[in-house]
Amino acid sequence: MTERNPPGMTEKKSPEMSATPPHKPAAKSTAKPRAIELLLSPTNNHQLANLCGALDENLRQIETALDVTIARRGERFTLRGEQAQTALASEALQMFYAQARSTLSVDAIQLGLIEIINRPVRKDLALAGLSPALITRKTELHGRTPRQVEYLQHIQEHDITFGVGPAGTGKTYLAVASAVDAIERELVQRIVLTRPAVEAGERLGFLPGDLAQKVDPYLRPLYDALYDLMGFDKVAKLFERGAIEIAPLAYMRGRTLNHAFIILDEAQNTTPEQMKMFLTRIGIGAKAVVTGDVTQIDLQRGQKSGLIEARQILKEVRGIAFTEFQKEDVVRHPLVARIVSAYEAHTAAQEQK
Questions:
Q1: What pLDDT is stored for residue 350 in this prediction?
Q2: What does the pLDDT read at residue 118?
C-alpha cells in the first residue's frame, strides 16, 4: 500500500536521505526534513495576498505554530518539516486560502490553527453531540480543544467546577461565557465576580475611590471578558441593576449567595482558609467556578495555596468537577504554549536536582 499526497500536493524527497535499518533509527539532528509542494487553485492574487498577510506575517504564524518552514513562489508553496506537521500546514493553508476573500486577522489565524491541531478529537466530540452551545454576543463561541469542551460540560452539569491550568487556556474567559449564558437563559439572577487582591494584601482601604474602583485593577480580566461577550452598554445596565456584582474575596465572609453564578479567579492566591470560606458561601440555585494556575502563586513564601489544598481534599466529593488544562489547550499566541513547555521542563529539571 503506497502513500498518496492530497490533491494539489506533491512530495519532494531530498537526495541526501537514505534508508536506515529498523534496529538503528536515524538521529534526529541529522535527519532531513520532509518537503512537499502545495499548489493553491484557482489562482487569485487578492486571496493570496490576504492569506500571506503583510510581510508574510500569517505564514510566519503558521510556521511557528506547526514547527514547519514555508517557502512561496506565486501560488506554489513548499512546506518542510515532519510529515504530520507538513500535512497540518497544508490543511491550514488550504483552509485559510478559502477564507481569504477578505483580510484575515491574526486572531482568525491563531484560533484556526488551534482548531486544526485539535480537529480529530473535536470531530468525535461534535458527532457525539457533546459540545455545549452558549448564548453570548459571540455566536461562534465554543470549546476549541477537548479539555475546553470538557470544562464547559462540567460547568453546565456541576454546581462547583475547578479549572486548573497554565495561562492562556481559556479558564477565565469560558467561565465568564458560561455565566453570561446562565443569566441570558435566566438560570441565575446575578453574576458575582471575585478575586484575591494579593498585591494589596487584601487591605484595600489605602487605595483611592469607592469599593469598585479599589478592586477594579484586580478584576479587569473579568470585566474585559464581560464587555467582549455582552457589550459595554448591556454590562453597564446589569451593573446598575445589581445583576453583576464585584466583591473582593475578603469581603465575602458571612454572606450566602443564592441564585448566583460566582466566579473566583486567580484562586491559586487564596489561602486554605479563604478557599473554605468561599466554597461555603454557595447558596440555593447557585453555581460556582474556581479558576487558577498553580505555577503562578504570589503568596508569601511558605504560605500554602488554597487551590492546591482544595484539589487534594475535594477531588472525590460528588457534585464537584475538576478540569486540568495542559499546554496543548493554550489559545493565545503560538509561542505561549512553547513558553509554558520550557518552564515545565525547567521546573522538572530543578526538582530532579
A1: 83
A2: 65
Residue type at 243?
A
Q: How far apart are CA 73 and CA 92, in angstroms?
A: 18
Name the DSSP letter for residue 55. G
Contacts of 56 (CB under 8 A, 6+ apart): 72
User: How many other CB atoms sit within 10 Å of the CB of residue 94?
Assistant: 17
Q: Which residue carries 480529530 as its cell?
A: 120
Phi, psi of 290 (to 5 degrees): -115, 125
3-state secondary structure (DSSP) of residue 35: strand
Q: How far is C-alpha 244 from the geometric centre of its chain's CA atoms? A: 24
Answer for the pair 134, 181: CB distance below 8 angstroms, yes or no. Answer: yes
Per the prediction, the chain carries an average pLDDT of: 81
The pLDDT value given to residue 128: 42
What is the rounded average pLDDT of the residues 261-267?
A: 94
End-to-end Cα separation, the chain, in angstroms = 49
